[in-house]
Design a protein that fits this description.
This protein is mainly alpha-helical. The protein has eleven helices and no strands. Helix content is about 75%, strand content about 0%. The protein is globular.
């Protein structure tokens, strides 16, 4: 009995692989960076009977993804009571986002499941933080709700438009589609800078709710050193000592989270501009697919009528 069950599972997996190969080979005209459509039942059989040696759920980058979720969950649990501990854990969870991609490429363990897991984790953790900011700053709640909506909608529509056009990854954007998105997704340093700066801005806003002590003296000391050692070489018409002193006084009245938020605010603005571009381009692509399908349907209907 056990032998027959084992043979049944083995034949099911073999048939699944055979079907997947036949579906793949039947599409010779598709681009190398496009995906082949696999029947859902075949995919379920393959996932159910996958071996330990190649279990996508247990790929190292996906294990890092699960770790990110656990750490983020613990961080959110301490959000109201331990802001610095929460920020530390939240930051670790975000930093691991860079390492799972590196591990996937180094170990040859890239997967669609991992890509979606990564994106969903990012969207959910950011949204949870923005929900807290909505309650911490009720006057700005509508803005935070808009940012959540823009973040979710732009990434969902971009992912969906990538799938319907046959792309293997939402990050495979050509410069013909959008030069902004091409720079954003194809340069790892740009992607990291935008994502890190955006998350840091929200974290600094979160810490501003708790930290009320101005920075104070350090900026006066730094401005004094600057005036003493640098200003003699700078023409007064370019930069006056009083300007430096006034600037240092303004900064000294900020808390350190406020200063961090001021520094990261331009990056957050740029990131949300990218989100808007992503939403607009994905919308146009989906409309273009609709128009192409409608034209094809009309052509088929005309052929039937003839």
């Amino acid at each position: 009995m056990a032998s027959s069950k084992t043979n049944g599972k083995t034949s099911s997996v073999a048939n699944g692989h055979a079907k997947a190969r036949s579906l793949s080979s039947s599409r010779p005209g598709r681009r190398r960076d496009s995906i082949d459509v696999i029947d859902a039942n075949v995919a379920l059989d393959l996932a159910t009977h996958q071996t330990y040696d190649e279990n996508v759920f247990l790929f190292v980058p996906n294990l890092i993804g699960y770790t990110r979720i656990i750490i983020a969950g613990v961080a959110l649990n301490y959000m109201k009571t331990h802001p610095r501990f929460c920020s530390l854990l939240y930051g670790i969870s975000c930093l691991l986002d860079a390492f799972d991609g590196m591990a996937a490429r180094a170990l040859g363990q890239t997967s669609k499941f991992g890509a979606v897991l990564d994106m969903v984790t990012d969207r959910c953790t950011t949204s949870c933080l923005l929900c807290f900011l909505s309650s911490a700053y009720p006057d700005w709640a509508l803005l935070f709700q808009f940012l959540i909506t823009l973040d979710f909608s732009s990434h969902y529509m971009h992912m969906y438009s990538s799938l319907v056009t046959g792309s293997r990854s939402h990050k495979l954007v050509t410069s013909q589609v959008s030069r902004i998105l091409w720079y954003y997704y194809n340069d790892p340093n740009t992607l990291f800078l935008f994502c890190a700066g955006n998350e840091l801005f929200y974290v600094f806003l979160y810490l501003m709710h708790f930290e009320k002590t101005p920075i104070g003296e350090p900026f006066f000391g730094l401005s004094s050193l600057f005036i003493m050692h640098v200003m003699p070489y700078v023409p007064a018409a370019v930069l006056a000592p009083k300007t430096i002193a006034d600037f240092a006084l303004a900064l000294s009245q900020l808390t350190w989270p406020q200063l961090g938020a001021v520094i990261c605010a331009p990056v957050c603005l740029a990131k949300n501009i990218v989100n808007f571009v992503q939403l607009w381009k994905a919308s146009k692509i989906l409309v273009g697919v609709d128009l192409a399908e409608r034209a094809k349907d009309r052509a088929v209907l005309e052929m039937r009528e003839e």
